[in-house]
Q: What sequence folds into this?
């Protein structure tokens, strides 16, 4: 039986050489008595280990790993609500809600800044139907928050059928959140018969308002 | 450059500060790809005594999924250093392993509920037994959570720990952190054999782990 120091040393050499060693092989070669200790040593090492310099072929194999591909594919298609996008961008820009409302009022020559602030708050809480936000509003918010014009836009709700390496509960959550978004849109009251002013047009008038 | 992901991380931090969402997403994906093996191995280590190989793959998928989603979360990774990135990944890995294990217990419980009780006393866990497992797991989680909070190998920890180590142990850890080959370590530390390096490394790692315990306290 190989000792823990030798197994650790051999693992590290293989890791640094970019050979992609599997800890399970090394744990399997340790005595039952030493296995837990070796696992601790390997875990400690992996927390301080430099990332190996993989050659192109190895990197291509890593990129094609089914679990990694599934995760990255899922991340690139997961819808992010406009509410969360606006909140994230506003925090990154270091602006308060009132700051944004104020700039929005100047940009669109709105008289009622406090109502704009209320609308913004509703938007960030996810209380507004994203499909009724006007394109002008989204473009204006993007400019105020320092984002690209196209960065801020409603994403389509995620459909079922997302495939994973193995089935996972999170996919159910995403589908549920997509359904939730659609339900909110369906249940949101349609604009009343009263004429919409400029501020209403921006927040609930629809994409072309 | 030895550590390509350090450069990517710096670019990621700059893109995040500039609010460049597309660059953030792309650089994060590159970081995750370069560190895929590290995440995978940490999952296997975290779960080696608790999950079957098949279920370990579930835990890996969950960990990768959560990590991949980070740039799209409002509260994501806020660190700036490689040490913080690894620490963050370790935390996600640990949570994914625990969640996967819990789910397995719940599934097992449901399966068991479909069976009739064996009058012969054949092996079958009762509902109470499953509840006991869950309770035990909850308690272990609390304990591990505390250890995790205090025991991560952050840069701050190394700044505190390394000066306290013996010269030979400190040099050994520094060589490892730089990813030096065994041959170079032999030359640098004046050792004669690989086995001598292996033994010194194990002692240095044990000393480091002991200091980590002190750091937690």
A:
């Amino acid at each position: 039986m190989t000792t823990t120091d030798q197994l650790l040393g051999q693992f590290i050499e293989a890791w640094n050489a970019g050979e992609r060693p599997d800890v399970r092989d090394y744990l399997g070669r340790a005595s039952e008595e030493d296995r837990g200790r070796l696992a601790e040593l390997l875990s400690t090492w992996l927390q301080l280990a430099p990332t190996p310099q993989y050659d192109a072929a190895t990197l291509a194999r890593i990129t094609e790993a089914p679990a990694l591909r599934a995760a990255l594919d899922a991340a690139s298609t997961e819808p992010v609500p406009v509410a969360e996008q606006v909140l994230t961008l506003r925090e990154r820009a270091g602006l308060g809600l009132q700051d944004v409302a104020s700039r929005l009022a100047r940009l669109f020559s709105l008289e009622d800044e406090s109502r704009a602030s209320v609308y913004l708050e509703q938007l960030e809480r996810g209380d507004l139907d994203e499909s009724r936000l006007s394109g002008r509003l989204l473009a204006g918010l993007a400019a105020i928050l320092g984002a690209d014009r196209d960065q801020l836009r409603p994403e389509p709700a995620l459909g079922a059928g997302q495939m994973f390496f193995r089935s996972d509960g999170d996919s159910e959550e995403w589908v549920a959140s997509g359904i939730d978004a659609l339900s909110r849109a369906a249940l949101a009251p349609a604009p009343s018969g009263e004429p919409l002013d400029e501020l209403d047009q921006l927040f609930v008038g629809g994409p072309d308002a | 450059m030895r550590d390509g992901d350090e450069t990517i991380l710096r670019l990621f931090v700059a893109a995040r500060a500039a609010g460049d969402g597309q660059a953030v997403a792309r650089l994060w994906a590159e970081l995750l790809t370069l560190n895929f093996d590290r995440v995978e191995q940490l999952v296997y280590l975290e779960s080696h005594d608790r999950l079957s190989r098949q279920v370990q793959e579930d835990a890996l998928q969950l960990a990768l999924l959560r990590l991949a989603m980070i740039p799209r979360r409002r509260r994501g990774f806020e660190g700036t250093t490689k040490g913080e990135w690894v620490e963050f990944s370790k935390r996600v890995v640990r949570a994914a392993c625990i969640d996967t294990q819990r789910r397995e217990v719940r599934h097992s419980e449901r399966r068991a509920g479909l069976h009739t009780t064996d009058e012969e006393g054949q092996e079958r866990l009762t509902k109470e037994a499953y509840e006991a497992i869950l309770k035990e797991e909850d308690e272990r989680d609390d304990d591990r959570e505390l250890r995790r909070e205090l025991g991560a190998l952050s840069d701050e920890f190394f700044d505190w720990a390394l000066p306290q180590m013996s010269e030979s142990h400190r040099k050994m850890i520094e060589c490892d952190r730089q990813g030096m080959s065994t041959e170079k370590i032999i030359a640098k530390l004046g050792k004669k054999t690989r086995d001598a390096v292996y033994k010194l490394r194990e002692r240095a790692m044990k000393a480091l782990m002991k200091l980590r315990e002190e750091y937690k306290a």
Observations:
- The mean pLDDT of chain B is 81.
- The longest helix of chain B spans residues 82-113.
- Chain B touches chain A through 68 residues (CB under 8 Å).
